[in-house]
Specification:
Blueprint (H helix, E strand, L loop, with lengths): L26 E8 L6 E8 L7 E8 L5 E7 L8 E8 L3 E8 L6 E8 L4 E7 L19 E5 L2 E9 L4 E9 L5 E12 L1
Antiparallel strand pairs: 1-2, 2-3, 3-4, 5-6, 6-7, 7-8, 9-10, 10-11, 11-12
């Protein structure tokens, strides 16, 4: 249970850049998970990075049981000056599956990364979809926010997507315990405008 005064986890400015190149760091918090044994928290964010066009990436922070940040921010997405945003995740007891909107291919897609209980990614990032609608890399409106949930010895992911022809559909994939696709159920439903 979170109690007490708020504690700042993300820095006011990106410590990787000198003061004259600083812009504020904006971290939106889409996912907060308690570490096993009440050892602290894992926080997945959409982080605005201080490079080029100020892209957004999926970041990870960790805290101790008091909510004090430990270590530095880890970027889990492609970190390629394109936009990765709106991440959601779930924990299966030993690792996280984080899914998010990804603009790296020049179309709006859904991507995933598998992260361990701490530290860098274990697998990914990799795309779950291809052929999404075109748009500039600032827009993530065409791929709906994906959701992931731990199921047995793996995960399930559900998302909505608008294709280049403006047809809308819901899709789902399940992953085994090693992060490989076990089932691809696309589309679950479709709607054309």
């Amino acid at each position: 249970t979170l109690a007490g005064a708020p504690v700042r986890v993300s820095p006011d400015y990106d410590p990787d850049f000198p003061p004259e190149q600083q812009v504020p760091v904006f971290d939106e918090v889409p996912g907060l998970f308690a570490k096993p044994g009440n050892a602290g928290y894992v926080i997945f964010t959409t982080s605005t990075l201080n490079t080029g066009a100020l892209p957004t990436e999926i970041g990870r922070y960790e805290t101790d049981a008091n909510g004090t940040r430990t270590g530095s921010r880890t970027i889990l997405s492609t970190n390629d000056n394109r936009h990765s945003a709106l991440g959601r995740g779930d924990f299966d007891g030993s690792r996280y599956l984080v899914v998010y909107n990804e603009g790296s291919p020049g179309t709006q897609e859904i991507a995933r990364v598998i992260a361990g209980a701490s530290g860098p990614p274990l697998a990914g990032p990799s795309l779950l979809t291809t052929g999404g609608s075109f748009g500039n890399t600032w827009s993530t409106a065409t791929s709906s926010q994906p959701l992931s949930i731990a199921v047995g010895d793996g995960f399930a992911v559900v998302w909505g997507e608008v294709d280049a022809d403006l047809s809308y559909w819901l899709g789902a994939k399940t992953f085994d315990g090693n992060g490989h696709v076990a089932q691809d159920a696309r589309p679950i439903s479709t709607r054309t405008f």
